[in-house]
Design a protein that fits this description.
Layout lengths: L1 H6 L5 H15 L3 H7 L4 H23 L3 E5 L3 H12 L3 E5 L5 H19 L10 E3 L12 E4 L5 H14 L5 E4 L7 H4 L9 E6 L8 E6 L8 H11 L3 E4 L9 H17 L5 H16 L4 H8 L4 H21 L6 H16 L3 H20 L6
Parallel strand pairs: 1-2, 1-4, 2-3, 4-5, 5-6, 7-8
Antiparallel strand pairs: 6-7
Helix pairs in contact: 2-4, 5-6, 12-13
């Protein structure tokens, strides 16, 4: 099996095994193969493995064939995606009807390029590899992947995705950066290939934060489209997670909302100042959460047993949670205005531009340190 060694299969054992199993299952239905070679013949085995090799190579080629990405919308998320795609050596076609969108994107890319250079550029990476176009109409033949970053308005997305589905090549994945609208709500407008539509929701800013929530809808093709999307995002250096069922807000935003709502409640009730609440998070929970998620932390706090943690500390946590529900922050205009007045002095005393730059610098150092560990990457 020299051909397998040359092709680099040893580096992709899990994928190879999965494909080998699938091919064996498929071929078990074909009596001709066994009749020709016999159930246990070496020829039959090599024929099956060769089929695996061909299928696997076709899959890998599909990944590598994503050379041109279309970006729709160049707000904060779309601009950041564009920067990342360029840094990974891809060609990017960008469109956005907003006034000054092209100029704003150019300014953003120039500002972020030094950071991306520090992280490390892929072969062929260049700021010259993007084109801002008024319309994608004349470019669909060259587009290999679409990342939509338009407004969070359902009717807008339904109209846009129907158009993209009609124009894009059948094999092109159409991913939305939507932060909360399930793709089933606009994929239903796609008359041709709704199975290639899914959510690829990044965390801001995408060119720095690794997470991408991949959220298929009920009829998204989970055999080919979902694995291809996951592999594509991984090839960019991202950390994609697969969300098995659609849920409003997905996962990261729901976790963030739970903490934020309690933070709003505590400050609005005069229990703690906004500045001290931020310090509470950044000097305790935030430090640990950058390294471990809640399940690992609970297991460690439980002496190595997650169940032990729940049995001994769960009742107290339940009583706190019940109290939180009694004092949930109400998103009324009056409550928002009152809370804003409380928070504004802290905001005014902070140089947000400097804070953002320092945050990004520390993030880079943190991610670099995590990448050098066996369990924290």
């Amino acid at each position: 099996m020299e051909i397998l060694g040359k092709s680099g299969f040893r580096h992709r054992v899990a994928e190879f095994h999965a494909l080998r199993v699938d091919i064996y299952k498929a071929c078990s239905r074909l009596d001709n193969l066994d009749n020709l070679y016999g159930n246990n013949s070496i020829t039959s085995h090599y024929t099956l493995v060769l089929l695996v090799y061909i299928t696997f190579k076709m899959t890998i080629t599909t990944m590598k064939d994503i050379k041109t990405v279309a970006i729709i919308g160049t707000g904060v998320i779309g601009a950041s995606w564009t920067a990342l795609f360029l840094a990974r050596g891809l060609k990017v076609l960008v469109t956005d009807p907003a006034p000054n969108a092209e100029k704003n994107l150019e300014t953003y890319l120039n500002a972020q390029w030094p950071t991306l250079t520090q992280i490390g550029l892929s072969e062929g990476a260049s700021l010259k590899n993007y084109a801002f176009v008024d319309s994608l109409d004349n470019h669909f033949e060259e587009i290999d992947f679409i990342q939509e970053n338009g407004p969070e308005r359902l009717e807008f997305k339904r109209t846009l995705f129907a158009y993209l589905d009609e124009k894009a090549r059948p094999e092109v994945i159409i991913a939305s950066s939507s932060s909360g609208i399930p793709s089933s709500e606009y994929a239903s407008a796609c008359r041709h290939h709704p199975e290639r539509v899914l959510v690829g929701h990044p965390f801001n800013p995408p060119h720095l934060i690794p997470l991408v929530e991949v959220v298929p809808h009920r009829t998204t093709d989970r055999e080919t489209v979902v694995p291809r999307a996951m592999e594509f995002y991984r090839s960019l250096g991202k950390k994609p997670v697969l969300i098995q069922k659609e849920i409003p807000g997905f996962i990261a935003n729901r976790l963030q909302a739970a903490l934020s709502m309690e933070a709003y409640s505590l400050v609005s009730r005069g229990i703690i100042s906004a500045a001290d609440l931020d310090t509470t998070v950044t000097s305790s929970l935030g430090l640990r959460w950058a390294l471990n998620g809640p399940y690992a932390l609970n297991a460690m706090a439980g002496g190595g047993s997650f169940q032990h943690f729940l049995e001994h500390l769960g009742p107290a946590a339940k009583s706190w949670h019940d109290d939180m529900h009694k004092h949930t922050f109400s998103m009324t205009p009056e409550a928002i205005q009152d809370l804003s007045r409380t928070v504004e002095p802290m905001v005014q005393a902070t140089d947000l531009n400097t804070l953002q730059k320092e945050r990004d610098d520390v993030l880079l150092k943190l991610m670099d340190m995590k990448s050098k560990t066996s369990l924290l990457e």
